[in-house]
């Protein structure tokens, strides 16, 4: 969090600083998170310091009416953090005393430590058909969150499996999310696994960098172009989030194909990670 704090202007008022820091924290733990609401009016004008962060928080219902750029009461800051941790079923938090830059960094560090215990991402990896140490597809099943989705990441040119799966998981991890579990398949097997359920329509719902035109219905038959970042709509994106109106990864199909997959998960754990806790 201190690296993110260094990017905020030193003269930014405390309310703006807190908004910038909370926005940065969410980007760390919730990549390519789509908006949850429309921000009809904001307490800052476009171009003002902090505007993008404030808009981001408002669109995710994390900016209380009591927020102001110049001040940050313990009650307002506690409300912002409580709304965030409630996404993960964590008990509401409250803070007392005057908010300062140091206290904001400290509070967010503590909160991210709790959140890291609640998210349960599953890394999906497809090996290149020509060289199975290269990564053809890198996805994250992100179900234990406020917006269950599949996050498709553009593999870094330097990312491969030459040092094994553990090294890749460690490289992907950060201060808020530790990646522990993976499922690997050769490219042809992964294609059958992801694209075998043609009855589920795929929507692009968010991306990094963000785009204003989402959600976008992916025409049937073009899913593979999106997964490979070859479709024009995502060709310049580092990652995007996808949602399905059916199962994004059918558990029955996955279990049937398990002998052809590599994973560090016992079979009994897979249905739990693929389940959507907010479905009921």
Can you lay out the helices and strands and say which pair or pack?
Elements (H helix, E strand, L loop, with lengths): L1 H5 L7 H16 L21 H8 L15 H13 L14 H15 L6 E6 L7 E8 L6 E5 L11 H8 L8 E6 H9 L6 E7 L7 E3 L4 H5 L11 E6 L6 H7 L4 E2 L6 H5 L6
Parallel strand pairs: 1-4
Antiparallel strand pairs: 1-2, 2-3, 3-7, 4-8, 5-6, 5-7
Describe it.
The chain has 280 residues and is of the alpha+beta class. Helices cover 32% and strands 15% of the residues. The chain has 10 helices and 8 strands. The chain has helices at residues 2-6, 14-29, 51-58, 74-86, 101-115, 165-172, 187-195, 223-227, 251-257, 270-274, and strands spanning 122-127, 135-142, 149-153, 181-186, 202-208, 216-218, 239-244, 262-263. Strands 6-5-7-3-2-1-4-8 form an 8-stranded mixed sheet. It is globular, with a radius of gyration of 20 Å.
Element-by-element helix/strand order = HHHHHEEEHEHEEHEHEH
The proportion of residues forming helix, as a percent range, comes to 25-40%
Strand order of the largest sheet: 6-5-7-3-2-1-4-8
The radius of gyration computed from the alpha-carbon positions, rounded to a whole number of angstroms, is 20 Å
User: How would you characterize the largest beta sheet?
Assistant: 8 strands, mixed
Rounded mean pLDDT is 87
Distance between the termini: 34 Å
Structural class: alpha+beta
Spans of at least 5 consecutive residues whose pLDDT stays below 50 are none
Number of helices: 10
The amount of beta strand, in percent, is: 15-25%
Shape: globular
Q: Count the strands?
A: 8
